[in-house]
Amino acid sequence: ARQATEHDEL
Amino acid sequence: MNIFRMAGDVAHIVSIIILLHSIETTQSVNGLSLKTQVLYTIVFISRYLDLFYRYISLYNSFMKVFYISSSIYTVYLIANKYNKSIKEHVDNFEVKYLLGPSFILGFLFNYGFTLPEILWSFSLWLEAVAILPQLFMLQKTGEAEVLTTHYIFALGLYRALYIPNWFYRYFAEDKFDKLAVLTGIIQTVIYSDFFYIYYKSAFKGKKFKLP
């Protein structure tokens, strides 16, 4: 899985 | 955006509306922890710094502005406008034991050793435990106003709903944010005892009482 560094959640 | 994420965000907004509405209708901040509200303000400001240099969506920006401004406004209401009803001796949780470890954990676990990433991780750890002064205060007084319990319930529900959202995103989008998932689970566990008591009192029509 991709690591989520975009932080598009709140 | 999936249904769990949407429902989680709605629960979060509802919790803030319940909080502000109950303060304004009762003209009192009785039973509310100023410390918890200050911690949420720190959480939002440290997490949403990217508002100034990264655009994700109109929804995203709007919500960030809403969380930052409503939390500052809540702190203002509790600390200034209705501060006569504050009982400081009840709200005496030592927040340094939450801020310190959160910063250390943010420093140790992050997706990049840069200030925004450290602050982002710090905000997740702090959010996970920010409700503790409020729960501690509830436990001390033993009873809570109905609206206060609805507020805490909606707030807990928000992060709890993010958990199926992360499952969904893992399978549907191949996206996995291990820090958010771990801190989200910790946060939900902290609320679990409260959820159980809330469930019992809400369905039996009793006044909310902690044992």
What's the gyration radius of chain A in Å?
7 Å
Please indicate the percent range of residues of chain A in DSSP E strands (runs of 2 or more).
15-25%
User: What sequence of helices (H) and strands (E) makes up the elements of chain A?
Assistant: E
Shape type of chain B: globular
> How confident overall, as mean pLDDT of chain A?
76
Strand and helix map with partners:
The complex is a heterodimer of chains A (10) and B (211).
Chain A: E1 2-3
Chain B: H1 3-26, H2 34-47, H3 58-81, H4 96-108, H5 115-129, H6 132-141, H7 146-172, E1 175-176, H8 178-204
How would you portray this structure in words?
The complex is a heterodimer of chains A (10) and B (211). With 10 residues, chain A is an all-beta fold. Chain A contains no helices and one strand. In chain B, helix 1 (3-26) packs antiparallel against helix 7. Chain B starts with a helix and ends in a 7-residue tail after the last helix. Chains A and B meet through strand 1 of A and helix 1, helix 3, helix 7 and strand 1 of B.
Looking at this protein, list some descriptive labels:
heterodimer; A: 10 residues; mainly beta; B: 211 residues; mainly alpha; globular
Question: Would you kindly provide a brief summary of this structure?
Answer:
The complex is a heterodimer of chains A (10) and B (211). In chain A, 0% of the residues lie in helices and 20% in strands. Chain A is built from no helices and one strand.
